[in-house]
Structure formats: C-alpha cells, structure tokens
Specification:
This protein has a domain of 60 residues. 46% of the residues lie in helices and 11% in strands. It has four helices and two strands. The protein has a two-stranded antiparallel ribbon with strand order 1-2. The two termini are 16 Å apart.
Length: 94
C-alpha cells in the first residue's frame, strides 16, 4: 500500500530530528513563560522578536461551566448534550 510506504519513509527521515525537536520545545517553553510574565491586563498577544523569528504568545480567555455544581443541583443531565467527534490515528504495526 502506497500509504504504508510513505509512512515508513517519513518515520525513517524524522527519527534523527526527535532530539532536536525536544530541545526546541524546551526553548520555546522558556520563551512562552517569559512572554506570559509580560502580559498586561488588556493584552491579547505578547511577541518576542529574534533575528530571524518572532515568537508570539496569545492569551485566550473562556468561561467554563461548573459541572459539579450543576450535577449537585440536579441540572447537569437536563442541559447536557452529546457531541460526536472523530480522531484518525496511524499506528505502525510490528
């Protein structure tokens, strides 16, 4: 199957990059923490510019529902709805 051949080729090519990706994630997380510390009250984004890249951290606020309280009051089931979603994964076989 052509898909399997491409999966194998990409896996082989990306293996040497794993350590570099881990190191990059560590540095990106550090930059993100610095940016988070620099947010002001009304800011939606904070950016940190390097020589070749701009690292932009965005803040998104949302309101969540206190499900435990709704359940305690007997309202959770009444106002709950079911959403269906699908996720596609590929697993390499031995």
């Amino acid at each position: 199957m052509k898909t399997e051949k491409l999966e194998d080729e990409i896996a082989k090519l990306s293996k040497p990059l794993k350590n570099k990706e881990k190191e990059l994630k560590k540095y990106r997380d550090q930059i993100k923490e610095i940016a988070k510390q620099n947010f002001k009250d009304k800011d939606k984004t904070v950016s940190i510019k390097g020589d070749r890249y701009e690292f932009i951290t965005s803040k998104n606020e949302r309101t969540d529902v206190d499900k435990k309280s709704l359940e305690k009051d007997g309202l959770l089931e009444k106002y709950s709805k079911t959403n269906v979603s699908y996720r596609f994964n590929v697993k390499k076989l031995a």
